Amino acid sequence: MAKPRDATMKALLETRPGDWLPFLGRPPVQRVTVIDADVSTVTAASDKVIHVGEVSPWLLHLEFQSGGDDSLIRRMLQYNVLLDLRHDLPVQSVAILLHPSANSSAPAGPYVRHLPDGRRSLEFRYQVVRVWELPVESILQGGLATLPLAPLCAVDEAALPGVIRRMDRRLRDEVPSADAHQLMHAAFVLAGLRLPPQVLRQLFAGVTGMKESAGYQMILAEGRAEGRAEGLAEGLAEGLAEGLAEGAKKVLLSLGKARFGAPDKATQATLNGIDDLKLLEQLADRLEQVHSWQELLTGATARRRAARRKKPS
Q1: CA nearest neighbour of 26 among 113, 94, 119, 123
Q2: Which of 142, 175, 256, 282 has the most CB atoms around its CB within 10 Å?
Q3: Could you list the mean pLDDT of each consecutive 10-residue stretch along the chain, which spans 313 residues?
Q4: What strands, in cross-sheet order, belong to the sheet with 58-65?
């Protein structure tokens, strides 16, 4: 699962691990703790593992998936066996699918292997939760750690503003403001699986604390910058609030200073006059191929004029 959503889900599980048992249809348990999921014997780590401290303790192994992955079940099997070996406890593995595009990743179980003569050599049973099939009311009334999943549930897009308002009211009533902002930010990140950035901006605009959240601004920027070169992402994120071109220009200037030194006034004026994002990215790509600002910017003015002529009036 791509970042930042994988980190978001792991953070939700760590803060309130006990909320995930009722989410999976199990009775709540008092002694529930997150344990180290690193099974470093094969340099592998599952998403998260919970130790359930019942009379007969066991492990709950969760894997969150937002896109297609044909290897998911075999990886879950690997983690299940290694966790059993490391902790000597029974392990229940659960695939939590966040988006319909992940549906093919976890077909109806069990996962079975047969020998050439037809005998069954392996059977792995696992649970699958398809979040988009869950009734939204069960999530709105469930644990706080699973509340940010509500926008992904079985609810019409037209009803989402009401869902967000209910989430906001509940969080403000039940947790400190810092925790409420963190949980609502998680809902915003996850809702990006379903909605484009412009809809997200409108949907969460009235939520307490969201406009002031740096993370909120960065996720909006990430949505607007989707498809741009990932190598410019960090620098672009700072400049996206003022425009993609300005962010790319800052990146180009920073990288160029490191390679050529500070530009003179004429060079700075040329850079200031470039507002075409594609051209700025091309210049950044050429940095390692040239030896001076002058060499880098040779022909840039002509290309900028050509680009402007191509723009529709």
Answers
A1: 94
A2: 256
A3: 68 89 92 77 64 93 92 94 93 95 90 95 96 96 95 93 93 89 89 87 75 54 48 43 65 80 88 82 78 81 58 51
A4: 32-35, 48-52, 58-65, 91-97, 127-130
Range of the domain at 218: 136-224
Q: By the 8 A CB rule, do 252 and 276 touch?
A: no
115/15 same-domain check: yes
Task: Quote the tokens at residue 135.
Answer: 């009734």
Whether residue 101 contacts residue 67, with contact meaning beta carbons closer than 8 Å, is answered with yes
- Measured distance CA(63)–CA(46) in Å, rounded: 7
| 91 CB burial (10 A radius; 0-12, 13-18, 19+) | buried
Residue 25 maps to which CATH number?
3.40.1350
Asked if residue 98 and residue 127 are part of one domain, the reply reads yes
Residues 6+ apart with CB under 8 A from 296: 256, 260, 283, 286, 287, 290
Is residue 100 situated within a structural domain? yes
Residue 194 resides in a domain = yes
